[in-house]
Design a protein that fits this description.
This protein has 418 residues and is an alpha+beta fold. It contains 9 helices and 14 strands. The protein has a domain at 32-270: Cysteine proteinases (Cathepsin B, Chain A). The strands form 3 sheets. Strands 3, 4, 6, 7, 8, 9, 10, 11 and 12 form a 9-stranded mixed sheet that branches. A hairpin with a 5-residue loop joins strand 1 (3-9) and strand 2. GO terms for molecular function: cysteine-type peptidase activity.
């Protein structure tokens, strides 16, 4: 009988669902969905800023509750970020729609089960079927194994990702992905000490005693920045805004660059305007997010075992019958403030920005870019007509540069390095 895994806090008895991400055994079938990000790198390591932080451009953090939808939550956050960068407005896409269709690709049985999914399955589902708004297929976890209605599929067909790029487990490459404006989804092996981040936001590096135990879980998250001062990635979780630092945590570079602990790193593209310049770069990396808890301190060690990982079968009382689990907060209200759920426009609204997918491998050395040279290209100011119609956000310029195989019909200057 399938088991459900939870990270259970000894202090609060809260349970957080684990093992919603299944390590992928294959790459996506389509070539545009299995690109290597290394061939798209723009910045050398010495050109990267000390800090990147997307949190101001992210939609509100949500709570996956007691089902294994962490992969869908992570990709929903990424898709909402891409949409917000295109039109300046918050959207709320259906996590259950993504989760159902990812499992339908992964699982061989006719009836899907709440047993998690692969990132490959979710990527293929987002490219083939797309996603609808959460107001159309709400996050009612009692319907976790139900097929979305036909209206959901009809709307979702207009809102798909176009590309997916695999990011290697390499610190410079992972930071470059974020510096170029792309969050990335990843799987992480975690232990009981991960619960320390519930109150501090700081994830400690697992020690040898933990990693040698058989008790561990896996979880999918979304990286939305990094801080060299903290030696940590800024990561969006899916356990609600009351967890961690308003729903976010800080995971050490050492943790996420360990291939035994981190796996399946992917970033997705929705529109051809997915080059966002340097508006999320920060030169004032003065805050050390790790200062609130030293992994080797007495404080950290005495609390290292305050949480355990437990398994329950599908007939346990902790099932999907209702949404009011102990850790399920106000984020269940999927008609969130400042979120638009009007029907989207046709993708033809964005056709003027479509570009070729045939990026060439990075070659040569780029000069150090000026910190503010792209600022004027990110002025999203007028969305009064339709929150999902992206007004022309960029002045005419060649978006990715001639070094990547594109040609331009414009006569105005462009930046050849982006």
């Amino acid at each position: 009988m399938p088991l459900k895994s939870f990270l259970t806090s000894r202090n609060t008895s809260q349970r957080f669902r684990l093992n919603g991400v299944i390590p992928s055994s294959r790459l996506p079938n389509k070539a545009q969905l299995r690109q290597n990000f290394r061939s798209h790198v723009i910045y050398r390591a010495d050109q990267l800023p000390p800090k990147v932080d997307f949190r101001s451009d992210m939609t509100p953090v949500e709570d996956q509750s007691q089902i294994g939808s962490c992969v869908a939550n992570a990709f929903a956050g990424a898709y909402e970020y891409l949409t917000k960068k295109a039109n300046g407005q918050n959207t709320d896409v259906s996590r259950l729609f993504i989760y159902y269709n990812a499992r339908a690709r992964d699982q061989s049985s006719e009836q899907v089960t709440d047993s998690g999914c692969t990132l490959t399955g979710a990527i293929e589902a987002l490219e083939e079927l797309g996603t609808c708004l959460e107001s159309l297929w709400p996050y009612d976890i009692s319907q976790v194994n139900s097929r979305p209605n036909d209206q959901s599929y009809q709307e979702a067909s207009q809102h798909k990702i176009t590309e997916a790029l695999q990011v290697n487990i390499n610190l410079d490459e992972m930071k470059a992905c974020l510096a170029q404006g792309f969050p990335f989804t990843f799987g992480l092996k975690l232990y009981g000490s991960f619960d320390q981040a519930a109150t501090t936001g700081v994830v400690p590096m697992p020690d040898t005693n933990e990693t040698e135990r058989s008790s561990h879980g896996s979880h999918a998250l979304l990286a939305v920045g990094y801080s060299d001062q903290s030696n940590a990635f800024i990561v969006r979780n899916s356990w609600g805004e009351n967890w961690g630092d308003q729903g976010y945590c800080y995971i050490p570079y050492q943790y996420m660059t360990d291939s035994n602990l981190c796996f399946d790193i992917w970033t997705v593209r929705q529109l051809a305007i997915n080059s966002f310049g340097q508006e999320n770069w920060h030169s004032d990396d003065t805050i050390d997010y790790s200062r609130s808890m030293d992994n080797n301190s007495y404080y950290g060690n005495i609390h290292r075992d305050r949480a355990i990982i437990e398994n329950f079968d599908d007939n346990d009382d902790y099932d999907n019958s209702e949404n009011n689990s102990p850790n399920y907060g106000s984020n269940y209200d999927y008609d969130r403030n400042n979120t638009f759920d009007d029907p989207w426009n046709s993708p033809s609204a964005f056709q003027d920005f479509n570009q070729s997918r045939n990026d060439e491998s990075f070659q040569g050395n780029f000069p150090d870019p000026d910190y503010n040279q792209f600022q004027q290209n990110n002025d999203f100011s007028d969305f009064s007509n339709n929150p999902f119609m992206a007004s022309a956000p960029f002045q005419d310029y060649q978006q990715y540069g001639s070094d990547y195989g594109y040609t331009s019909s414009y006569d105005t200057p462009f930046n050849p390095f982006f």
